[in-house]
Amino acid sequence: MNDLESRELRYFVAVAEELHFGRAAGRLGMAQPPLSRAIRDLERRLGVRLFERTTRQVRLTAAGEVFLRDARTALDAIAAAGRRVRNAGRAAPVLRLALKADNDAGLLPRILSAYQRESAAIDVELVLGGRGEQAPALRDGRADVALLVSPFDDRGLDFEPLRTEPRLAVLAATDPLAARSSLRLADLAGRSLPDGTLVEEDGPPRPHAEENAPPSHAHPGESGPTWPRTAPRELTAGARRPPSDITQIFRLVELGQMICFLPAWVTRRYPLPGIAYRPVGDLEPATLAVAWPRDARSPAVAAFIRAAVSVPATADAENGVPQEAPA
After folding, report:
1. Pair 45, 1: CB distance under 8 Å
2. Of 12, 172, 193, 225, which is most buried with the most CB atoms under 10 A?
3. Strand extents, DSSP E, the chain
4. Whole-model pTM above 0.70?
């Protein structure tokens, strides 16, 4: 069999994600007949059926499911190679740090300060994104390191936990449940979450349900300010943050239209008179981690990881923040 081409992988992934040849063709900017022929040719060359086709639907076969995972990995690797070499070829390469605003557990200023003391440190560029965008940014080369909240898709990544804290229920201060000192998920069963799903009594909600609002409208690769290693600045100075829906969520919670769940480090930033935060005994805690591509060999990446890992214990001791040891 001849070597696969990236074009064929893109065609296959588009059809696999859309499960509709017409929509996939529109996404790719091409007509449907040549796309259908390309997929048939790909199946013939591979010697397997990737899709089950009927007049009503298109479904992935078992072989197609396996190929989809590997095709995405291959396309990410191709994209990553281009982005990383372009960054390395800049007159002044930077370390690109992916994160979601407010999801740094308050550690980012200290991490940046510790990193700037490392001999291998270079300027840091923030890659701001919405929920779930940090791990893909590492895999496809948009970022070199990331701060993200577990659980997350760690394919091709290594990571170190930095801090674990409870996730709290966010309720209207007038909610009868706000009168309790602590809750169980069963107490919240049937309550609406920001993504429209309901809290289930027999199991925890989807991890990080506080972020179940629509993802940020910011481009996943939007970069924030750059921190030179020789001149530390305040985290908020000149920051360009992507639009956030958290204010809207708080307002809807205050009106009793929904609840949400937030890591304790986020709730400390938002003490609001119309909002109550309550611990939930059987809710999975939130763990902040620093992550990087498994094949990373950059001294600057290694220096950032050392700095990030060194900070939480010091910050906790100085601030008196209780910490649950990561599992």
Report:
1. yes
2. 12
3. 51-53, 58-60, 95-99, 124-128, 145-150, 157-165, 167-172, 223-227, 260-263, 275-279, 286-293
4. no
